[in-house]
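Q: Protein A?
A:
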Amino acid sequence: MRKLVYYVAATVDGFIAAPDGSYDFFDLHPDPAGHLVTKWPQTFPTFAHAQLGIDRPQGRFDTVLMGRATYEPALRVGVTSPYAHLKQYVFARSLPPSDDPAVEIVSGDPAAFVRDLKERPGGDLWLCGGGHLAGQLLSEVDEWVIKVNPVVAGSGIPLLDHSFAPQHLTLLAATPTGAGVVVLHYTR
């Protein structure tokens, strides 16, 4: 069965973006970028592959899931398929169907949709954002990979937008990557 992996950058205080959805305060230093390109090459947008030296982004994911707010920055600059190397599902009730064959807009229940995807053959599923979608998929997330950046934001979009529901996780790895970034990898 496929796994759903929430792989995302976060601040020390648990935010994945500023209140306006921007995330440019996360610096991409060469040290962490080198580790991430080696270990998680599929998580970089297709347009960045050439400059990062990614020829064929192979790895565990063949699908990316994102919310509307995560997808919209690409649309604003005219990119309809930010992860063209992956099958892309965007969960949004306010977007029309995509004209891009690599992108499917899903307006139904995210948890039911993901349960169905997990049963299909293929690689693992990458949940790349955002916090609201992660909250809706909390019961379906099998692994958490959090790139904790040495930044305190104070407020913004939380890592997970969900009511109080503690779930205990098991740490698989804690990898310092340079420039103060630590990649924490947990499983349910």
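Q: Protein B?
A:
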Amino acid sequence: MTTDQMAQLSNYLTGSAFAVLWIAFFCHVAEWISARREAPVAVAAGQGPVVTADHDADDRPETPDRLVGIAVSLTVLGTLLLIGGSVTRGLATQRAPYGNMYEFGVTGTAIALTVYLFMVWRSRIQWMGGVVLAVCLGILTMSVSSYTPAGPLVPALNTFWKYIHVTSIMVAAAMFMVGAAASVLYLVKQRAEDRGAVGPVLARFPAAARIDQVAFRVNAIGFPMWTFGALISGPIWAHLAWGRYWGWDPKEVWALITWIVYAGYLHARVTAGWKGRRAAYLALVGFATFIVSYYIVNLFISGQHSYA
């Protein structure tokens, strides 16, 4: 297979993954819609959901229903296709597949979905699937919109540190994506619990406190990876490429802003006891700064990282 054929195969695999993941997302939406036909659920203060129909909550099935099972299966398929698209892109370019914004988005989303599926296997968090897919599809859409044909790296990127720096950033970004999805779910579920009634759709999600813990744990894993990738290996790479460790390039500035926001989030949770709504909003602010760094800076702000 020639490199051109490999690049074309990568495009087909990535496009197929995009379509499959959209179908998986709509399966989650269909499950939410079907859930609305169930009996309403009331929530007492400080307690979990209490079903108000004639049947008891213990009689509700614990395993995901058919639509959720289909959605998770399609997510597995879409993730495998996305991994295939990333691998074949690397084979086509004969380098690691994260030399530009398109490749970073495809590979990073594949990592995020792999993290999510691992958590489904270990902790049964398939209830996050619809929101996780929404976030991942948003990132993929931004990546596809900035598609770059397969080609060699610019000289500044062609060092061993690209593997260390970019891999750390991508793993951190994957964690932040899952954490953002959990934070959104928490805010929705907590608002419903505060009002004293949870509808049949939200009743399928765990208590808000558990969702909050999931958000905290994945963000806590992502933060040290971002610290190492953005503030340690990144400056080392910059020194090798440009002869300086830090130059206040727009990409560097926004990476630092992202680090500051997530550092504040974790510090507030650990030392000030911030939980719940305030912590969730702060986590979403951190994810918004990541999106600015990933998308806005790359496309609309000129700098040494504009190619990335």
